[in-house]
Amino acid sequence: MLTQTDPGGAPAPAPVLIALSSFGAAEVRRHGQLWFTQLGLQAGADGVEVRSELLLDASQELPAIAQTVRSAGKSVIYSCADGLWEADGRLALGVLERALSATHTLGATRLKMAIGGFNPASRSTLATLQQRLQSARLELLIENDQSPAAGTLAAMQNFFHTARAQGFLLGMTFDIGNWHWVGECPFQAATALAAQVRYVHCKGVQRQPQRWVAVPLAESSAPWRAVLRCLPAALPWAIEYPLLGDDLLTVARQEIALLRQVAASLALASAGPTPDQQEAAA
After folding, report:
1. How far is CA 51 from the centre of its chain?
2. In three state form, how does the secondary structure of 52-106 look?
3. Domain for residue 125, yes or no?
4. Which of 120, 134, 119 is nearest to 168 (CA)?
5. How do residues 146-190 score in pLDDT, each as one tens digit?
6. Domain that holds residue 221
């Protein structure tokens, strides 16, 4: 588990990971995710999120990344870009099996995916999914993506309610920026889904004339601190916004430091006043 508690019993600050897509698709494909894993860990990240869509040779890259992360004593999450259900509602078994295999090879215990085309006809397939996850001993985290079918609050609530009704309890990757792409309020989503959240994608956003774009948190036009404050404390956070510049190591270090500073302040606030502070106030 990535969530921690300090010796005094208060929640420790959230671990900070880097989603490797943050370094830009072209650059990641040029250097490979192993190279950026090493850079991210050198910058001080607590782990990385490996992206299926940016793998060039999974048979070589995944074991190498696994060894690097394991040697450093850090964490890793596998992100599969394909949806769990086809557009017609069928469980995408081939996609699922490949994702489970990749997660295992990576040495990860958490797999991140979106629900894709989940619909009422998909309900009967939830038992199959649950069985496969239990056999694989992996935790699946459902992400709100940027599509109306798999990224709106209604879609997320319907999915979690349907799964829960069948005794299938799943966690969520809460992307604080993606809600804007589907016209949703991140605050409302955070309030409604907080109990499901196990992992947070931190992403700043700006509105351009025809679209939303991801930006560093400090450049965001959305109140990202307030959204993070709505979510449970001490969950792992991942940088999932552009990390650009001539000195990527320094850029990554600065962004990690920013998130750690915010996480520490939220953890302190959630812990409440210390006994000394309470005595001073009395």
Report:
1. 11
2. HHHCCCHHHHHHHHHHHHHHHCCEEEEECCCCCECCCCCECHHHHHHHHHHHHHH
3. yes
4. 134
5. 999 999 999 999 999 999 999 999 999 999 999 999 999 999 999
6. 16-281
CATH of the domain at 177: 3.20.20.150
Q: Alpha-carbon distance 225 to 248, whole Å?
A: 24
Residue 7 lies in a domain: no
The 3-state secondary structure of 153-216, one letter per residue = HHHHHHHHHHHHHCCCCCEEEEECCHHHHHCCCHHHHHHHHHHHEEEEEECEEEEECCEEEEEC
Q: Which pairing describes strands 237-239 and 197-202: parallel, antiparallel, or unpaired? A: parallel
The total domain count for the chain is: 1
CA distance 234 to 236: 6
Torsion (CA) 153, 159, 162, 165 in degrees, nearest 10: -80
Distance, in Å, from the CA atom of 60 to the CA atom of 227, rounded to the nearest integer, reads 38
**Residue 3 domain-assigned (yes or no):** no
Render pLDDT for 233-271 as a digit per residue (tens, 0 to 9): 889 999 999 999 999 999 999 999 999 999 888 877 776
Q: Is residue 102 within 8 Å of 78, Cβ to Cβ? A: yes
**How does pLDDT run across 48-79, given as a tens digit for each residue?**
999 999 999 999 999 999 999 999 999 999 99
Q: What is the pTM of this model?
A: 0.92
Region 100-109 average pLDDT: 98
Q: What angle do CA 49, 122, 167 make, to 5 degrees?
A: 75
Which position has the token pair 């320094």?
A: 250
In a domain, 11, yes or no: no
Helix axes 153-165, 186-193, angle to 10 degrees: 10
> By the 8 A CB rule, do 191 and 219 touch?
no
